[in-house]
Amino acid sequence: MSTILEIMSRDHRRCDEDFSQTEQLVADGDWSGGQQAFAGFRDSTERHFATEEELLFPRFEQQTGHTMGPTQVMRMEHIQMRHLFEDMQQAIANRDKKRYLGLSETLMMIIQQHNMKEEQMLYPMMDQVIGADANQLLERVAST
Fold first, then answer.
1. What percent of the chain has pLDDT over 70?
2. Residue 124 has what DSSP assignment?
3. HSE-up (13 A, CA, CB side) for residue 31
4. DSSP designation for 95
5. Which end of the chain has the smaller Cβ count within 10 Å, N or C?
6. CA–CA dist 43, 48 (Å, integer)
């Protein structure tokens, strides 16, 4: 049986790979490839966020009765990252390598801290709190 921690951490790594590929293409000046890779990165990250925001967070909040705790912090960080996505998309459209790479560095720091909080605290808490219901929820996560 897989855990929420295992499945979602594996998804973090996949999103990280998409992010690195995009950054390399932009750094190399491959704007067409960079634009396509960024769209893929953004889509995979948005799917990850949706899994959390639509499935995992609500179930965790329902089980714990807390909506103002770690899930609220994660949602606020998702919003912050989405704003950076918009700015990064604009930098690609403008072929502004310096701006994109600066924003990319900022996003990298946010993602690393965000993922660490989820992997070291929130996902283990979810595995513990959701317990036996995790299998059903994980099947829904795997199908998204």
1. 96
2. H
3. 10
4. T
5. N
6. 9
- 114 pLDDT exceeds 80? yes
CA distance 12 to 132: 24
If one counts every other C-beta atom within 10 angstroms of the C-beta of residue 76, the result is 10
Joined tokens for residue 112: 């690393």
Burial class (CB in 10 A: 0-12, 13-18, 19+), 92: buried
Which residue is associated with the tokens 């995790």?
134
Query: Residue 29 carries which DSSP code?
Result: T
Task: Give the model confidence (pLDDT) of 48-101 as tens digits.
Answer: 999 999 999 999 999 998 888 899 999 999 999 999 999 999 999 999 999 999
Query: Mean pLDDT, to the nearest integer, of 105-124?
Result: 97
- pTM across the whole model: 0.91
- Token pair 């989405």 is at which residue? 82
Query: Rounded to an integer, what distance in angstroms lies between the CA atom of residue 38 and that of residue 107?
Result: 13
CATH number of the CATH domain containing 33: 1.20.120.520
